[in-house]
């Protein structure tokens, strides 16, 4: 069975600083995709970044990057130069051959001015 | 490009009443999902459609929940009778096709409170 675990329920970071959100997963599939989604307060969930498991290079999208450690089944999200608009719930998710997305319980990130 | 539309945004009902949520996916998206998100938890898949056929409803409480996607476009999720534990946000999402690693696009959600 697929599982996704986010062990940090809440985090905070000062504006312009860097923060890392943790995610671990478990899957029996050889190939899969991993995602980070952002859910701002009372707004819709949007994709932040995605990583294909067979690619060793870590994905990067502007201020967002991941640290993908396949052997350790770890997929952390780094946000550089944090902005007030980054305040949101962040969900880690996996997607594999069953075509089912499995989401973690989320990390609530608050960016402080 | 219009996003995933959902209505109503907010609904308060008494237990044992019924409620229906409507979703219009992004144009051309073949795959449609309904998720339940209880406060403080991640989204849980209730049902997944490919065009107008169900491909996964393993976590749908079929004694009280039903969903349909007529003509492979709009979808309706119904709860009857509602229980207190059904209080949650019901998220509709869509993707272009049922393919590996596809990005899914979410609507703003329908917030249900059962009192």
Short précis:
Chain A is an all-beta fold. Chain A has a single domain (3-112), classed as Immunoglobulin-like (Sandwich).
Poorly predicted residue ranges of chain B: none
User: Oligomeric form of this entry?
Assistant: heterodimer
Q: How much β-strand is present in the residues of chain A?
A: over 45%
Number of strands of chain A: 12
Q: Tell me the Rg of chain B in angstroms.
A: 13 Å
Quick one: CATH superfamily of chain B?
Immunoglobulins
| Main pleated sheet of chain A | 6 strands, mixed
Could you walk me through the main structural features you see in this protein, from its secondary elements to its overall organization?
The complex is a heterodimer of chains A (113) and B (115). Chain A is an all-beta fold and 113 residues long. Chain A has one domain (3-112): Immunoglobulins (Immunoglobulin-like, Sandwich), CATH 2.60.40. Chain A contains no helices and 12 strands. The model of chain A has no long low-confidence stretch (mean pLDDT 92). Chain B has a single domain, classed as Immunoglobulin-like (Sandwich), CATH 2.60.40. In chain B, the strands form 2 sheets. In chain B, strands 2, 4, 5, 6, 9, 10 and 11 form a 7-stranded mixed beta sheet that branches. A 4-stranded antiparallel beta sheet of chain B has the order 1-3-8-7, with no helix packed on it. The N and C termini of chain B lie far apart (37 Å). Chain A binds chain B through residues 4, 31, 33, 35, 42-47, 50, 52, 91, 93, 95-97, 99-101, 103-106, and chain B through 3-4, 33, 40-45, 48, 55-56, 91, 98-104, 106-109.
Topology overview:
The complex is a heterodimer of chains A (113) and B (115).
Chain A: E1 3-5, E2 10-14, E3 19-21, E4 24-26, E5 33-39, E6 46-52, E7 60-61, E8 64-69, E9 74-79, E10 88-95, E11 101-103, E12 107-112
Chain B: E1 5-7, E2 10-13, E3 19-24, E4 31-37, E5 44-50, E6 53-56, E7 65-68, E8 75-79, E9 88-95, E10 105-106, E11 110-114
Parallel strand pairs in B: 2-11
Antiparallel strand pairs in B: 1-3, 3-8, 4-5, 4-9, 5-6, 7-8, 9-10, 9-11
